[in-house]
């Protein structure tokens, strides 16, 4: 069991390393409890080797508890709590997500207006594998998702279309790299259509 302090809206990844079990084929379920003891998520992932689990944005401030329950044997696990990198996007201004460590996700915010359309253009992706993109409305509800893929020697851009945003306010984009990837980077450019 591990505990950590978190604040409302923070994003974290649980990064597991040095994983070993007393019997071959062992695994452990991971659960995370809210400060009031209720479940943030039950069985958010299963650990059988070095891996990572991305937590949803924390809904409240306080002490969270991470519990690993081994199914058939005892386990030895090193756990690192990796906070999201944080940045902001402005229209037609290039931003860059550079992982400081393996298994690090990123949160970017941008201002949007109801009815506004535009694009998120992701390029120069050096994070090998599939990076998940999640976009949330100003009220915190889910808006849309996408996956961008990089491979050795890949060129070009991945384009995410934002069609007629539903609300005025601050939107959130979260980038979640593949588990246990080597740290890399992605360029991000947001464009906005002229509203007529």
Written description of the protein model:
By secondary structure, the protein is mostly beta strands. The protein has no helices and 16 strands. It has a 5-stranded mixed sheet with strand order 8-10-15-12-13, with no helix packed on it. Strand 12 and strand 13 (142-150) form a beta hairpin. It is globular. The mean pLDDT is 86.
Distance between the termini: 56 Å
Major pleated sheet: 5 strands, mixed
Spatial order of strands in the largest sheet: 8-10-15-12-13
Please state the average pLDDT score. Answer: 86
Features:
196 residues, mainly beta, five-stranded mixed sheet, 16 strands
Task: Give a brief rundown of this model.
With 196 residues, the chain is mainly β. Helix content is 0%, strand content 57%.
Topology:
Layout: E1 2-6, E2 12-21, E3 28-33, E4 39-47, E5 51-54, E6 62-70, E7 75-83, E8 85-88, E9 95-98, E10 106-112, E11 118-123, E12 129-136, E13 142-150, E14 157-162, E15 169-176, E16 185-192
């Amino acid at each position: 069991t591990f505990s950590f302090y978190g604040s409302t809206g923070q994003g974290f990844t649980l990064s597991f390393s040095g994983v070993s079990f007393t019997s071959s084929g062992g695994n452990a379920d991971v659960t995370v409890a809210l400060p009031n003891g209720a479940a943030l998520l039950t069985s958010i992932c299963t650990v059988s080797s070095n891996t990572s689990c991305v937590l949803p944005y924390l809904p409240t401030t306080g002490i969270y508890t991470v519990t690993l329950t081994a199914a058939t044997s005892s386990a030895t696990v090193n756990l690192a709590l990796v906070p999201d990198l944080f940045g902001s996007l402005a229209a037609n201004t290039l931003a860059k997500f550079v992982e400081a460590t393996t298994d690090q996700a990123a949160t970017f915010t941008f201002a949007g207006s109801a009815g506004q359309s535009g694009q998120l253009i992701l390029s120069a992706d050096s994070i090998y594998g599939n990076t998940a993109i999640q976009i949330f409305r100003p009220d915190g509800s889910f808006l849309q998702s996408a996956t961008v893929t990089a491979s050795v020697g890949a060129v070009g851009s991945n384009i995410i279309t934002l069609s007629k945003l539903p609300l005025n306010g601050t939107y959130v984009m979260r980038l979640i790299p593949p588990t246990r990837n080597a740290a890399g980077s992605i360029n991000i450019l947001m464009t906005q259509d002229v509203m007529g």
